[in-house]
Amino acid sequence: MTKFISSTINHFILSIGLLIMIVPIWIIFASSTHSSLFINTNGLQFFLGDNFIDNYSRVLFKQSGFFNEITALKMFFNSFVMATGIATLSVITSLMAAYGLVYFKVKYATFIFWLIFITLLVPLELRIMPSYIVMSKLNLVNTFAGLILPISASAIATFFFRQFYKSIPDELLEAAKLDGTNSLRFFIDFLIPLSRTMIAAVFIFMFVFGYNQYLWPLIMTTSEQYWTVVMGLKTMYGSISDRFAFVIMSMIPPVIIIIFLQKLFIQGIFQNK
Amino acid sequence: MSFLELQNITKIYPNGTKAVNETSLNIENGEFVVFVGPSGCGKSTLLRMIAGLEDITNGKISLDGNIINKIDPSERDVAMVFQNYALYPHMSVFNNMAYGLKNRGISKEEINIKVNDVAKLLEIDQLLTRKPSMLSGGQRQRVAMGRAIVRNPKIFLFDEPLSNLDAKLRNQMRLEIKRLQRQMGVTSIFVTHDQTEAMTLGDRIVVINNGVVEQVGTPKEIYSKPNTKFVAEFIGSPQMNLFNCKIENGIAYIADMKINLNNSTNIDDASLGIRPDDILISDNGQHSCVANLVEYLGSDMIIYSKIGDQEFSCKLSSKINLNAGDTFKFDISSTLVHLFDNSNGSRV
User: B81-99: per-residue pLDDT in tens?
Assistant: First the structure.
C-alpha cells in the first residue's frame, strides 16, 4: 500500500515536470499548423490545424536571408555539418589528450591537465577576436573548417575521459603489454571500446553544444551560404506560423541524435562500465 | 648456465623505498619455483621485474641465455596470471585468449585450433562466447590461465592468482595448476603469501623478507631446516614456537625449565624453536604445564600454554582427552629443536 502511494506521488511529480516541459513545445507545434492569419486573430492554439504540410514545406524550401541566398534546408545541413564536426573532433582530441595524460609518463601531467582545464575559464566569446584573426589569416572565413576548428577541443571532455581512464586498472595495460600490444593498439583495441558509452555521452553533449553555437558562426560567416539554424532563428523573417514551424524543425536533429544514442548515453553518464 | 638467472637484482622506487636488495637466483628449465613472504616483502616486485613491468635499478636478468633487462615485456615471451585476473572486459573469452596470438601474427585457423585445445584442457570450452562479466570467479581464473597457456611462453608468472577465490576452489585450483605445470613442463614462478600454497606447489621455495632472500630450498629443506628465525616462524602452520632462552654448556634455560641439547653450545641470547607437533606429550614427560586454551580442529587439537611468561602451542591428536585447565606432561627432544642466535637471527 505504501509502495502504491509513493509510486503515485512519484508519478504525479514526474507528470507535472513533463507537462511543464512538453506543453510549451506542444503549443508551438499546434500553432505552427494553423495559418498566420488565424493565429494573429485567435492567439496561440492548443489543437492542431490543417496547414501542417503547407507551412512546413514552405518554410523548408523558401529562399530567405537578406539576399535570399539560403533555404532552411541548407541551414539544417550547415548546422548538422558543424555540430557533427565539432562533436567528432572533440571526441577524438579529448580521447587522445586524456590517453597521453594518463598512460604516458609525462612529467607534470597533472599540471598540464589543469592548464587544459583552466581553458574552461576562457570560453570562445572571450577569445573571439584572436580566434577570428587566426582563422582569417588561415583563409578559413566562410568555410566549415573555420566554423568547426576553434571549438573542437574540449577541456570538459578531456576531463571526463581522463577520470575514466584513471579508473581502468593498471593490470589491464600490463596484461595487454605481455600479450604483445603497443601503445596505438592498446588505444584502439582497449580504450576506445571500453569508453564506448563515454564517447556517446560526450558526442551528444558536444553535438548539442555545436548545434547551439550562435555568436561564432555569426562572426565567421559573411556569406549567407554558411548560415546555421540558430542564426536562422534570429533572422527568419516571415509569418508567425512559419517561425513556429522553423522552431519545431530546429529541435529535430538533436532529438534524433539523442534517440539513437540514448542507451549508450545513459550508461555513459551513470556508470562507467 | 641456468634458464633464468637473476644477478644482484636491486629495485629502488623513485620515492627511495628499496623493494628488492641484491637478490641473486638461478631457476632451471621446467622448474616450479614459489616466491613466498609477507605482504610488502618485494616478492611481487621481483616477479614484475622478470615480466618487464618494473624497471630494474641494478643487476642483470637473463632468460634462456639472453640478457632481458632492456627488452620490452611484449618481447620477453613470458605470460602472467594476475591476482585480479585482468581479463579484457569487452572481449569474449575466445578473444581474451586469442588476443596475444593475434598480436603475434598467427593465422586465424591456427588461433582457432590453439584456443579450442587450451579451452578443452581447462574445461572452459563451453564459455568461449561469454564475456568475463558473465563468469564466476573460478571460471575467470581458468580463462586467465588459458590466456597464459595458449601462448606457450618460456615462463609462467603467477602473481597471487588464488587469493581471490574461496577456500574450496583455491585448493582445487592449486592442484590443477600443479598438474598443468607438470604436464606442460613450463618453467613457472608463483608468488604467494600463503605458506601452504608455497609448500604444496613449489619444487623449490624462495622465502623473501624485506627485499632479501632469506632461504632457497625444497619445501622439505625449508620446513625441516629453516636458515633463519624468520623462515622458521613463517613456514609451518601453526607457527613454530620460539622461546627466548640462555644456553650454557648445551643446556637451554627457559624460565625454570631446562632442556638438554646434547652439545656444548654457549649463547647468551638465543631462540629455541620447536614445531607445535614436535612437542611430545606423554604421561611420563619431564616437563609439565597447564593448558590455558584448547582449540578443537576435528582430527587434531591445538593446546595453548605458557612456560614462564612465554606462550607456546602444541598440536596433538584430538583422541587424547585434554581440556582447558588440565595439566599435561611433555618432552622436548633435542633432535627436534631449532636453535637461532638472536643477535642476527641465523641458525646455530
Answer: 999 999 999 999 999 999 9
